[in-house]
TrEMBL record, chain A:
The keyword Cell membrane applies. Residues 4-245 form the ABC transporter domain. This is Phosphate ABC transporter ATP-binding protein (PhoT family). GO terms for biological process: phosphate ion transmembrane transport. Gene3D superfamilies: P-loop containing nucleotide triphosphate hydrolases. PANTHER family: ABC TRANSPORTER I FAMILY MEMBER 17. The keyword GTP-binding does not apply. PROSITE patterns: ABC_TRANSPORTER_1 (PS00211), ABC_TRANSPORTER_2 (PS50893). GO terms for cellular component: plasma membrane. One of its GO terms (molecular function) is phosphate transmembrane transporter activity. It is a peripheral membrane protein.
From TrEMBL, chain B:
GO terms for cellular component: plasma membrane. It is found in: Cell membrane. Residues 70-278 form the ABC transmembrane type-1 domain. It is a multi-pass membrane protein. GO terms for molecular function: phosphate transmembrane transporter activity. Keywords: Cell membrane, Membrane, Transmembrane, Transmembrane helix, Transport. The chain crosses the membrane at residues 21-46, 66-94, 115-135, 141-157, 189-207, 259-281. It comes from the Bacteria. This is Phosphate transport system permease protein PstA. It comes from Flavobacterium limicola. Pfam families: BPD_transp_1. GO terms for biological process: phosphate ion transmembrane transport. The lineage of its organism: Bacteria, Pseudomonadati, Bacteroidota, Flavobacteriia, Flavobacteriales. InterPro entries: MetI-like (IPR000515), MetI-like_sf (IPR035906), Phosphate_PstA (IPR005672).
TrEMBL record, chain C:
Its main location: membrane. GO terms for molecular function: phosphate transmembrane transporter activity. PROSITE patterns: ABC_TM1 (PS50928). Residues 162-373 form the ABC transmembrane type-1 domain. It comes from the Bacteria. Keywords: Cell membrane, Membrane, Phosphate transport, Transmembrane, Transmembrane helix, Transport. It is a multi-pass membrane protein. The chain crosses the membrane at residues 161-185, 205-226, 238-256, 287-307, 355-376. CDD domains: TM_PBP2. GO terms for cellular component: plasma membrane. Belongs to the binding-protein-dependent transport system permease family. CysTW subfamily. This is Phosphate transport system permease protein.
Amino acid sequence: MQKIESKGINFYYGETQALHNVSLSMKENSVTALIGPSGCGKSTYLRLLNRMNDLIDNTKMTGSILIDGQDIYEKNTNVDDLRKNVGMVFQKPNPFPKSIFENVAYGLKVNGITDKKTIEERVITSIEQVALWGEVKDKLKKSAFELSGGQQQRLCIARALAIQPSILLMDEPTSALDPISTSKIEELIYELKKQYTIVIVTHNMQQAGRVSDTTAFFYMGELIEYDKTKTIFTKPSQKQTEDYITGRFG
Amino acid sequence: MTKEIHLAKQKRRNQKIAFGLFQFTSYAVVGLLFVILAFIVIKGIGVISWEFISEMPKEGMTKGGIFPAIVGTLCLVFGSMIFAFPVGVLAAIYMNEYVKDGWMKKIIKQMTNNLAGVPSIVFGLFGMALFVNKLEFGDSLLAGSLTLGLLVLPVVIRTTEESLKSVDDTFRQASLGLGASKWQTTSKVVFPIAFPNIITGLILSIGRVSGETAPILFTVAAYFLPKLPTSIFDQAMALPYHLYVISTSGTNIEASREMAYGTALILIIIVLISNLLANALRKYFGKKVKMN
Amino acid sequence: MLSSAATSITVVLIVFFLFIEGAGVFSKKPIEEGFLLAVHASNPINKLEPSQVKDIFDQKITNWKQLGGKNEPIVLFRTEDITEFYSEEELGENFEYFPAKIDEYVSKTPGVIAFFSDKYKAKDFHGKELEINKIKIFEFLSGEEWFPTAQPIAQMGVKALIYGTLWVSFGAILLALPIGLAAAIYLSEIAKKRTRNILKPLIELLAGIPSVVYGFFGLVVIVPLIQSVFGLPVGETGLAGSIVLAIMALPTIITISEDAMRTTPRAMKEASLALGASHWQTIYKVVIPYSASGITAGAILGIGRAIGETMAVLMVTGNAAIMPHTLLAPLRTIPATIAAELGEAANGGLHYQSLFALGCILFLITFCINMLVELVTNRGSHKKH
């Protein structure tokens, strides 16, 4: 069974259609990269997977998305629980104006975990998972804003991991970072793949090539091609994909 | 597992209660507006007639009309605007187009803010000390207009500044690039574009001035004066003061209640019209400017 | 150039005139002009504090011993008391013998303290005129009695008025803050854009209604309501003032806190939601803390407005200048006092000046509040960058 399965997705912002009949499935413990030029719908698609687009007024979706065989747009889906299971990391690091510890503990607390010991354990494990422990263990009480951009982004990943999701959505997670921080995050993605299903939107072709198992190419709201990353980058079947990958547009 | 389901349910219930409460509160606040308006409209509408707005008060202000109060308020609005509008607009132009960012601008800004925060009764005290006594204008339209003018000065300055700021810098650069001087650019390009919004500020100030009572208590307002002012050194009646007087200290409060409802309604109509007009203008011109 | 300085000049002028006139209170004798206080020539007391004079005439002090003088009971004497000692003929048809008789009475009464007009002071007056100390700033601020036209000595304690002002204002904020916050949250976070676009201008319209109309509404609706609900003898109470002020402060609080909440970055809210927090949890754990400085500024500004508001309060609070003990009784605020009394105070007189001194206090309070708002907003924006 596929971990994520979407069928015939159409999505509208008001009158404008942003996604046309997109069907896409992802295997468990794999990394899928979504690539394409700006405004192609890749981020919109990503944000459908944890229903983040619900927040935008005047939008409409048709089609269905199943996670673990459950339709997440069904009427009695609990959105909060869905988002707990589908973690998200954003384009720019967006820690809360709280301490490092509180940032990671936030998700646990809002999900009703009150036991201090459990919280502490999980916070530490998550920070260790993102290889940040050594850098922050002495300043857990300090504001998260004191960290560098790359550290902040890893903290945000730790924050997402703390509530133990099974899927991790990443929306251009390294676009605001320097090359060194970027490579650290990429290594991390490789590690995390063992436990999580990861979907990553990226502008950076090399990155997609390095971290993903499968790649989906979006263009003008349509899914043009979806295949093994190796295939997409070496012998794409579509002309548009080839043009994009070789840098002729986008 | 059941514990988690229970928790999720609780989370959703809390949210439902909280949001319901917030929604109710918001509508209640708006409802309050309508209650106040409706109350005064229903009670006051029957009082209003041609006689009411065109005649002098009679029989200890329990009968007749409020003509002199309307005229007085119009005079005060006119007088204060003649003073505050040019001064405020020039001040804002100077501040926005000529003064560079720095400590001086900061101080002027801060002072404008401070002036806006001064309670209106303090303006009344000040107007009495300076205009009525020191400059010996006496209780007069002149003293009252100047006091009210100072009161709305910050409003005029702020709205003008905002409208000047909203003028795109490319207009300025284009004009300067064509060899126009700074003053030509300001007067021929920036000012005309900003003008509609500046007018919005003027209308808002008119609404504010016509409703203020405390500043005119000791500078111009007459308790009962069944004639129209003939010079700027005359005392005058004014709508808000008239409402205060006949609802609290008239010769016969019960008998003049009707008059009070009518006066309140006229006052509200003036203020609401100026507010709505300003809003409508802002929307209308806002669209037009964006299209450019 | 000059016009841009207009506001600064005005502020300076306001400060100048307010403080010049207000300072007069402390440089003048608190006894009505043209009147004097005199004692028997043998009385060792030369000088009295205003509060001592008051206590003497209130008969709280009844013996000169209490003031460090001889053991002699105090005998009060006012001009009109003279008729008790002398017949009309003795005083003369046109009171022409008043000075002589007063002099005679004072000379023969060792314990006397006499209060009378200058024009009745005999040329060869045998009594001793008392010096009265000026009112001190501390007395002015801490005195609980406001009775500026009292005789023989004016009572100028503003404590009751300051307390009255604060009570009404804080009562108003207590009512307005929760309501205002709830509405701000709804408008900025929950309501659809269309709903918001309709509701917000309507709420702002509340700010446009003149305060005298609020006062009138309070007078004819809220005052009778309070009277009947609480079964009070009068409905003009501090509570009525608080309610009216709360309605007036609502638009300020709602507009400013809503603006502050809307500056919460979308990324913060999405981060919270993506962690499985509910919308409500996101609001109270992320949005409110993030906009706390803006909300505080709104609340402080609301208090500032309430403190300075005159007409509405004047019309509904009953204006009794007593120390407030409950919001269910009449009380009196500083602005209302100025508005109610300035019309009756003689220009340049002590009463007139004392009202300007009240104006100074009011100005200082609101000035501090403005500065506080500035501080809070600046600190808030520093934190975020």
